[in-house]
Amino acid sequence: MFDQILGLPAHPLIIHFAVVLTPLFVAVAAGYALLPRWRPYLAWAVVLLALAAPAAVYTAKESGESLKAARFATAEGELGARITTHQSFANPLLLSVLGLTAVALLLVFATRPSRESVGRDRFGRAVTLALSGLTLALAAVAGYYVFQAGDSGARAVWGV
């Protein structure tokens, strides 16, 4: 399923979604956590990116595994080491993006005013601050892993 698109290897085509959507999700989630006045404008973007970024990362991971099995299963030496390094960032990236998704969506829910508490957070300031801090931490982790995955993939392909 994740092997080819129109006869071309799927991974080089699919990774661009993860490379664009994940940093965008990291930035928007961090902005949502840090800028309370912008939350009404950013909430929709956080929710959409929370759905799209993990899907893109998962698809990139699966297509990478298919590409490796189909074309690089016997790769050894420097190329094999570069592919292994690149592949080692896939699971941490996926897990960090999933964690960011869960926490960012909780933060959006927690900061949406309810009918009973117009102008206040649903669960109180302490919960909002904790979720904001966790969102920032997971955004940093996801940002680190998307950079490492992209950089190591580029080095594997271009031999830099």
From TrEMBL:
Top-rank lineage group of the source organism: Bacteria
Bilayer-crossing regions: 13-34, 41-60, 93-111, 123-147
One of the Pfam families matching this protein, by short name: DUF2231
Record's keyword terms, sorted: Membrane, Transmembrane, Transmembrane helix
InterPro entries per the UniProt record, alphabetical: DUF2231_TM
Residues of the DUF2231 domain: 7-158
Name of the molecule in the record: DUF2231 domain-containing protein
